[in-house]
Amino acid sequence: MAEPTPAEGMYETRDLHVEGVWPLGPKPRYGGTVFDLEGRILLRRPTGDYGGYVWTFPKGRPDVDEHPTRTALRETLEETGYRPVIIGHLPGRFSAGLAATSNYFYVMEDRNGQVERAAMVRNGETADLRWATESEAEELIATTTNPNGRRRDLAILRAAYTAYRRR
Question: Which domains occur in the chain, in start order?
Answer without folding.
Answer: 36-166 (3.90.79.10)
